[in-house]
Amino acid sequence: MRSAFLRLAVAAMALGLLAPAVQAQAADSGATIVVDYSNPGLTPAHWVLRLAPDGSGHFRSERGKAPVSDPQQFEPANVDRDVQLSAEFAGHVFQLAHQHNLFNAPCESHYKVAFQGWKKISYSGPDGAGSCTFNFAKDKDMQWLGESMVAVAGTIVEGARLETLLQHDRLGLDRETEFMMDAAKDGRLMEFSTIKGILERLAGDPEVLDRVRKRARTLLARADG
């Protein structure tokens, strides 16, 4: 039994040592995951997030025609920028792709649930390609993936909103960063590395409220964590 335990330990260590090499190989392969989201009742109504295994990616959003919920609130223009997610998050996403046959299977549950937005998740790489589309997934991993990507997109849009507020309404940063703190706690926002730049600006800006700077530093800690 001791010998078997030692063999398992050695195997686990070997996998741990190989993981960075495997991730680097995946990054070099040109594999890509694309999330295409649409919900005409929300702002933005449509966005696309393209992700590589190392966490690098690109995000593009379109506002749509939904009415403004708060006429006094500044809304960012359409977002179109490169983003950087954590390698850990990206690695888990690509792992799920391979665990779910590169998304080559129906994933819509057809449950009677509220409309959450259509999420088309696609994989392409030298090992194949596939995609599936769902409002609410029948598989818990796919549902987690959809909710997580929506949270990432929400963070990127919030970052753009912070940039707009910093330029046009510094007092509005107080309410916005308070919302972001609450949303970070319950998972509505995640992967704050995608907006690290604006958080660093706020954390070091003596012209914004002290509590705004403190919240920015707290969110930065999540980005670095």
Summarize this structure briefly.
By secondary structure, the protein is of the alpha+beta class. The chain has six helices and six strands.
What does this molecule look like?
The protein is of the alpha+beta class and 225 residues long. It folds into two domains: 1-28, no CATH class; 31-224, no CATH class. Helices cover 48% and strands 18% of the residues. The protein is built from six helices and six strands; from the N terminus they run αββββαββαααα. The chain has a six-stranded antiparallel sheet with strand order 4-3-2-1-5-6, covered by helices on one side. Helix 3 runs antiparallel to helix 4. The longest helix is centred in the last third of the chain and has 29 residues, at 140-168. The protein is globular. The model is unreliable at 1-27 (pLDDT under 50).
Defining traits:
18% strand, alpha+beta, 225 residues, disordered N terminus, 6-stranded antiparallel sheet, single chain, 2 domains
